Amino acid sequence: MIGAQPADDLDIVNETVLWRRILPEWYVPDENTGGHRITSQAFQNHTGTMNMSVCIADECKGTDDLLVGHDGYGIAALTAGHCRDCDQGIVRHPVEHPAHCHVVGNKKKKKRCLQKGAKIVIAPALLS
Amino acid sequence: MSDMLYGVVGSSALADTGLFTDAPLHRQRETLSDPPAKKIEVTLPDVTWVVHLSGGDPVWVYEVLGGIKRLATLPANWDSYGAHMIQSEAARRGLLLLAEVMHHDSPSPSIVPTSTGGVQFEWHRLGIDLEIEVDPNEEPTVWYHDAASGEEWESEPDANLKEVLEGPVARLRPRDPNP
User: Fold this and answer.
1) Mean pLDDT (whole number) for B137-160
2) Total CB pairs under 8 A between chain A and B
3) Which residues contact A83 (CB under 8 A, 6 or more apart)?
4) For residue B41, what is the DSSP state?
5) Which chain B residue has its CA at the smallest distance from A21's CA?
6) Measuring CA to CA, which residue among B108, B134, B106, B137 is closest to residue B120?
7) Nearest in space to B60 (alpha carbons), one of B175, B174, B138
8) Continuous H helices in B75-147
9) DSSP single-letter state for residue B78
10) Given A32, A47, A112, which is nearest B124 (Cβ)?
11) Predicted interface score ipTM higher than 0.90
12) Can you spell out the DSSP letters for chain A?
């Protein structure tokens, strides 16, 4: 429904840290900082859905838990509260992993909002 | 404002660009002093482009073409969340937009794939952030942020992007150390 609030599990409190895997293609040079930044395109929904995959950091067995089988990937952290500030909800979806969740909502206008609150935990490999 | 002429043609019908010419290269020279047009052939999975450059040989053209060629090799589901392969038509539209607004000395953008099969060109330099998203199914959009002034905006769907981008692209150019 247009204007409807996304589903949101408030048991996932605002302080909850969420980890998102970051592909090397999503890590671009940033001359403003002298380093790199995560592109806004890293915060899009799964194709054809309103869902973006994340995992609850405290429920993962370390960063390796999220990166196994994903050579070269990195991890970015956002808080559930920041996602909600970007008009998103967070719901559990423990299919791939017990800690797996979806950040639910329209990302078209909000991907940059999400990007601004993301911090690198593990940097992806740099593309040559 | 761009002072270069580009034609981008391919094995699919692209003659509506208005920049297409099948004239022999020597006919593109308007005067004897004009340098001959340069032709760059770019082979993508579904099409071969022939890019005609006249009046300049800017680095950014080669780097953008190289970036597009690299992204075109990404397979379907490249992000493991159902992402589409990059559509060459979206990349072509993006390249033509850059050709309209970039200068000889414009810095090359970073190029990232979008999950819908498009491309995003982005620059982060001189206190400026500029992103041009070219979606296969929608008009391109522009996002701009200037840290010094705090200015931040996103283009409207019906915006004239050539006008919208003129100022931001100019601000990205290398600054004269001896003004």
Assistant:
1) 93
2) 56
3) A18, A89, A90, A103, A114, A117
4) E
5) B79
6) B134
7) B174
8) 88-101
9) T
10) A32
11) yes
12) -TTPPPP--TTS-TT-EEEEEE-GGGEEEETTTTEEEE-GGGGPPSTTSSEEEEEEGGGSSSHHHHHTT-TT-EEEEEEHHHHHHTT-EEEE-TTSSTTEEEEES--TTTHHHHHHT-EEEEPPPPP-
Chain-chain contact of A31 with B74 (C-beta, under 8 angstroms): no
Q: Which residue of A has its CA nearest to B148?
A: A32
**pTM beyond 0.80:** yes
Nearest CA to B121 among B95, B85, B147, B157? B95
A contacts of B133 (beta carbons < 8 Å): 41
pLDDT tens profile B21-37: 333 333 344 445 555 67
Q: How many CA within 13 A on the CB side of residue B92?
A: 25
**B155 to chain A: nearest residue by CA?**
A109
Tell me the C-alpha to C-alpha distance, in Å, between residue B39 and each of A85, B57, B142: 50, 10, 29
Q: Which residues of A touch B81 (CB under 8 A)?
A: 46-47, 53
Determine the Cα–Cα distance for residues B169 and B27; give it in Å rounded to an integer.
31
For residues B139 and B161, give the distance between their C-alpha atoms in angstroms, rounded to a whole number: 10
Contact A47 B116 (CB under 8 A): yes
Note whether B124 contacts A25, CB cutoff 8 Å: no
